[in-house]
Amino acid sequence: MEANNIQLFSIFGIFIVMLFIAGLYCILMTRNMMRALIGLEILTKAVTVLLILAGYVTGNMAFAQSIVITLIIIEVVVIAITAGVILSIYRHTNSLDRSTIRDLKG
Amino acid sequence: MPALFFLIPLIGVITLNLPFRKLMKKTAFWFAAVLFIFQIVLVSSHRTSFWGTGLVQGSFFNVNFYVDHLTLIMLFSISIVSLASLLVARAMISDENKRFNFINLLITAAIGMNGIVMVKDIFSLYVFLEVAAVSAFIMITINKDKPALEGAFKYILLSAIATIMMLSSIGLLLLIAGDTSFGAISAAISSSPQSMLVKLAMAIFLCGLFIKGGLIPFHGWLPDAYSAAAAPASVLLAGIVTKVSGIYTLIRIVTSLFGFTPAVSKVLLLIGAASIVIGAFAALGQKDLKRMLAYSSISQVGYIIIGFGTGSVLGVTGAVFHLFNHAIFKSLLFVNAAAVEKEAGTVDMDRLGGLSQTMPITGTTSAIAFLSTSGIPPLAGFWSKVIIIIALWQAGYIAYAAVAVLTSVLTAAYLITMQRKAFFGNIAPGLERTKEAPLAICVASIILAAVTVGVGVFFPFVFNNFIMPVKEILIK
Question: What does the buried/exposed string (b/e) look like for B254-264 if buried means 16 or more CB atoms within 10 Å of the residue's CB?
Answer without folding.
Answer: bbbbbbbeeeb
